[in-house]
Amino acid sequence: MKASDYLSREEIQHYTRRSDWIGVWLIVKSWLWIIAIFAVVAVWTNPVTIILAILLLGGRQLGLSILMHEAGHKTLFKTQKLNAVLGQWLGAYPVLGDCDAYGASHREHHRLAGTDQDPDLPNYRKYPIAADSFRRKILRDATGQTGTKLLVGLLSGAGNRIMMRSGEGNNALRQGLIANAVLLAVLWLCGAAWLYLLWIAAYLTSYPLVARIRQVAEHGNVTALYEMDPRGNTRTTRANWLERLILCPNNVNYHIEHHLLPSVPLWQLEKLHHTLTARGFYDDYPEAVANGYWSVIKRAVPELDKGAAATA
User: Fold this and answer.
1) DSSP code of residue 290
2) Residues facing residue 236 across a β-bridge
3) What is the C-alpha separation between 191 and 119, in angstroms, rounded?
4) Confidence of residue 278 (pLDDT cuts 50, 70, 90)
5) How many Cα atoms occupy the beta-carbon half-sphere of 166 within 13 Å?
6) Is the dihedral of CA 260, 262, 266, 268 positive or negative?
7) Residue 290, phi then psi, degrees to nearest 5
8) H/E element holding 69?
9) Which residues contact 56 (CB under 8 A, 6 or more apart)?
10) Within a 10 A sphere around the Cβ of 152, how many other Cβ atoms?
11) DSSP characters over 74-109
12) Helices 131-142 and 145-156 sit at what angle, rounded to 10 degrees?
């Protein structure tokens, strides 16, 4: 199965075109959301706004990691210098990531998805799992255990051994710490340095949580994990506005489309999805597309679905 089986050459060229202006807008929009969240908490400081801010900031941090992902694919901007500079400093570094390191690893995931050599396979190959196991994972995320472990790994270099061996990992981590220092400094100049604690809290709790759900949605308990066709080893999830805000920012939910044509910028994925759907792309794979993230979780954790049915 190839994209050209469903799309003309002209259509592929259309969907893979990139835009510097849209790339800039995606970054600006992401940071406007972050500014708005901080502003709301600063004006209305109470337990409710703080808890909501931590949840929403986790989604925004995931959004920045998606921009890092795009820059790693060289699709966030048409101009590659912008991918290398804005993608790093306003996407990757604030979440202690690195476009180049992520891109190198992620391209291997694309090349080997559907095989037992997929480097991302440990994130989802055990699904479906028992409800108790899933609850323990969610609890570790929500209480900061997962985030702390990941952060310690990043700071020690264990989080990216390839880059650390080349010496580039130290530089990326240094730049990430600088980006976070700048964020703290801006908040301090605004007279609200304490808001940076929300950024840390989100990074350690809600960010790993939404990232886990994203991973489960993309490849957990799919139709055929060890099949090369992305309709078998990957899933697209149709999401509502709240899910797009927290769980799947920047169209990351259109994951089959992304695996079919990784060169398609994220802002084109929804249009591509509708075109493919209209042309029968999913007709032989009805379970390749899920309607909502609760549907995904019920597939990945069947006991939850049985429990809900019993309660009803």
Assistant:
1) E
2) 289
3) 44
4) very high
5) 9
6) negative
7) -105, 150
8) helix 47-72
9) 33, 37, 245, 246
10) 11
11) T-S-SSHHHHHHHHIIIIIGGGT--HHHHHHHHHHH
12) 60
52: which 2 tokens? Answer: 């909501």
What is the Rg, in whole angstroms, of the alpha carbon atoms belonging to the chain? Answer: 19
Q: Give the span between the Cα atoms of 188 and 178, in whole angstroms.
A: 15
Q: Measure the CA–CA gap between 68 and 93, rounded to whole angstroms.
A: 9
Distance, in Å, from the CA atom of 66 to the CA atom of 218, rounded to the nearest integer, reads 14
DSSP letter string, 183-251: HHHHHHHTT-GGGHHHHHHHHHTHHHHHHHHHHHHHHTT-S-TT-SSHHHH--EEE--HHHHHHTSGGG
Residue 1: pLDDT band by 50, 70, 90 thresholds?
A: confident
Q: Give per-residue pLDDT as tens, 107-158.
A: 999 999 999 999 999 999 999 999 999 999 999 999 999 999 999 988 887 6
Q: What is the dihedral of CA 214, 117, 73, 259, to 10 degrees?
A: -60
Contact 105, 119 (CB under 8 A): yes
Strand partners, 290: 237
User: Tens digits of per-residue pLDDT, 243-269?
Assistant: 999 999 999 999 999 999 999 999 999
Distance CA 7, CA 274 (A): 12
- Hey, is 46 helix, strand or coil? coil
What the block records as the tokens of 270 is 């929804």
Closest CA to 267 of 3, 105, 77: 77
Q: What is the DSSP string of 120-145?
A: TGGGTTT-S--HHHHHHHHHHHHTTH
Helix H or strand E encompassing 28: helix 20-43
Cβ atoms 129, 96 nearer than 8 A: no
E strands, 145-184, where? none
The token duo for 31 is 């940071």
Residues 6+ apart with CB under 8 A from 297: 134, 213, 216, 304
Residue type, 3: A
